[in-house]
Design a protein that fits this description.
Blueprint: E1 3-6, E2 19-22, H1 25-46, H2 55-68, E3 72-73, E4 85-89, E5 92-94, E6 108-113, E7 115-117, E8 120-121, E9 124-129, H3 135-153, H4 161-174, E10 178-179, E11 185-187, E12 194-198, E13 215-218, E14 221-223, E15 229-231, E16 238-240, E17 246-248, E18 251-255, E19 260-262
Parallel strand pairs: 1-2
Antiparallel strand pairs: 3-7, 4-6, 5-16, 6-9, 7-8, 10-14, 11-12, 13-18, 14-17, 15-16, 18-19
Helix pairs in contact: 1-2, 3-4
Bound molecules: 2-amino-4-trifluoromethylsulfanyl-butyric acid and cobalt (II) ion (2 copies).
Length: 276
């Protein structure tokens, strides 16, 4: 049975396995601000990601914008991670580490940012097109975005997490894409990663019931080929085993009395590419 706990304003950031936190108005206010900052950072990248730049240059932009806003990149120093965002190119599923890698014409790249602002985490990612991108890659990106938004349509009180998972799975499988099972969405708030786990494939009506005040991410990773991933020797970078292209979008949301609030919507309308 799922346990829920009503969070009060002075609660400490504590992980309680299997207990799902229900946040109040101050939580919503904090997440709104952190989420808006995260989304504005991704907006700034929309017109700046071009062939020839390195993923380190993306990381520099993210770090500077985060710190200028009075926030801290939550990934800096997280379990030994030393960068301010993740940059996952082509067959990289997630957690690509920024570095010397140069973006080339035709690449697709996911940038995932998580500013920690006044104690609250805004976690979001989007895909970017580098120069001229193939139709098959653009279709994967479109369908992955649709998967996220169809999943979010199910995010309302009385529904279950499995309803979100099922909507994502159904749409991805309609296109014969693989849904990554090795990574999932997560509760968040004062903690970066909290319960519940939000899986991206599942059966309707299963999993915890959604209640007002729940905060979590939905972040489907969808592959053109098979779902299977492997981890590279750096201990972070996850790639598709068959080297097929992978795409991901992520929003942080809060369940409201009537549905959900997306904390990380793009202020500039740059929700999905093309952004130009
Ligand atoms: N932002 C990622 C997520 O969606 C987590 C990245 S952790 C890192 O949960 F250490 F790899 F950056
Ligand atoms: Co996340
Ligand atoms: Co993220």
């Amino acid at each position: 049975m799922t346990e829920y706990i009503q969070v009060s304003p002075d609660d400490r950031a504590e992980a309680r396995s299997h207990v799902i936190k229900l946040h109040g108005p101050e939580g919503f206010a904090g997440m709104r601000r952190a989420g808006a900052l995260a989304a504005s950072i991704l907006d700034a990248l929309a017109l700046r990601i071009v062939p020839g730049m390195t993923t380190q240059q993306i990381d520099d932009i993210v770090r500077c914008m985060t710190i200028d806003a009075g926030a801290v990149p939550a990934t800096l120093g997280y379990r030994g991670y030393t960068k301010s965002c993740c940059t996952s190119i082509n067959h990289v599923v997630c957690h690509g580490i920024p570095g010397d890698k140069v973006l080339k014409d035709g690449d697709i790249v996911n940038v995932d940012v998580t500013p920690l602002l006044d104690g609250w985490h805004g976690d979001t990612s989007r895909m970017y097109l580098v120069g001229d991108v193939s139709i098959k890659a653009r279709k994967l990106i479109d369908v992955t975005y649709e998967c996220l938004m169809l999943g979010l349509e199910q995010a309302k009180p009385g529904n279950h997490l499995g309803d979100i998972s099922h909507a994502i799975q159904t749409h991805a499988e309609k296109h014969r894409y693989g849904i990554v099972r090795d990574f999932c969405g997560h509760g968040l708030g004062r903690l970066f990663h909290d319960s519940p786990e939000v899986v991206h494939a599942g059966r309707p009506g299963t999993g915890p019931e959604l209640r007002p005040g729940m905060f979590f991410t939905v972040e489907p990773m969808i592959n053109i080929g098979r779902a299977d991933c492997k981890l590279l020797d750096d201990g972070w970078t996850a790639v598709t085993r068959d080297r097929s292209l992978s795409a991901q979008f992520e929003h942080s949301i809060g369940i409201t009395e009537t549905g959900h609030e997306i904390f990380t919507s793009s202020p500039g309308g740059f929700d999905k590419p093309p952004y130009a």
